[in-house]
């Protein structure tokens, strides 16, 4: 479980094919290496991955074919920046919203415009996920907890404040960029309860 509050922007050092899966080696600067152990979950660009090796300020994680096909992790090349957040521990502050790191789908940046010191972003989502996005609800985009400003069909809008642009990968978004999207867990549970 995560909060959607990114704690570091790391970078992909290498990707090694391993029998259809891929091992990703990720470097970080601000995470505390003594606070990470083999077996820990780390949210990488919105995807919950397991640290399988630790070396200095790097960790390795395996990404299955399923993960590579359903997220943007398969698009990463050495040098790509990635949002990082270690898993939530009991007593940690919950500054964003509850994020599982289980990506629901890949969305696409549809529009970008200035809004005072912020940047307004329009995001197109797969139609099957649009029903889970509500005005003033929460979403995680590439692992970043954000508030939905408006929803119109299969597109929703968010604002990125200067701080978010500076401390996450979202400051480099361009129209057409693909992003990992996780809808709010509450919406999924409500739908399941109502269907039952």
How would you characterize this protein structure?
The chain has helices at residues 65-70, 127-130, 162-167, 185-195, and strands spanning 8-18, 21-27, 41-44, 47-55, 58-63, 81-86, 105-115, 118-124, 138-141, 144-147, 150-152, 155-160, 178-183. The protein has 196 residues and is mostly beta strands. The chain has a seven-stranded antiparallel sheet with strand order 10-9-13-7-8-12-11. The protein has a six-stranded antiparallel beta barrel with strand order 1-2-5-4-3-6. The longest helix has 11 residues, at 185-195. The radius of gyration is 16 Å and the shape is globular. The two termini are 26 Å apart.
Entry keywords:
196 residues
């Amino acid at each position: 479980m995560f909060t959607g509050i990114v704690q570091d922007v790391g970078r992909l050092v290498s990707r090694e094919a391993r029998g259809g899966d891929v091992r990703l080696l990720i470097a970080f600067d601000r995470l505390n290496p003594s606070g990470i152990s083999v077996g820990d979950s780390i949210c990488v660009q919105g995807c919950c991955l397991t640290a399988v090796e630790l070396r200095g300020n790097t960790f390795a994680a395996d990404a299955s074919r399923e993960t590579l096909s359903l997220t943007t992790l398969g698009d990463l090349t050495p040098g790509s920046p990635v949002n990082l957040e270690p898993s939530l521990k009991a007593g940690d502050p919950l500054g964003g919203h509850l994020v599982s790191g289980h990506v629901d789908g890949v969305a696409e940046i549809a529009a970008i415009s200035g809004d005072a010191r912020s940047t307004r972003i329009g995001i197109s989502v797969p139609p099957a996920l649009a029903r889970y996005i509500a005005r003033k609800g929460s979403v995680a985009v590439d692992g970043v907890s954000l508030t939905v400003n408006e929803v119109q069909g299969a597109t929703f809008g968010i604002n990125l404040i200067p701080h978010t642009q500076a401390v996450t990968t979202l400051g480099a978004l361009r129209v057409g960029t693909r992003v990992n999207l996780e809808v709010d867990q509450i919406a999924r549970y409500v739908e399941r309860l109502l269907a039952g």
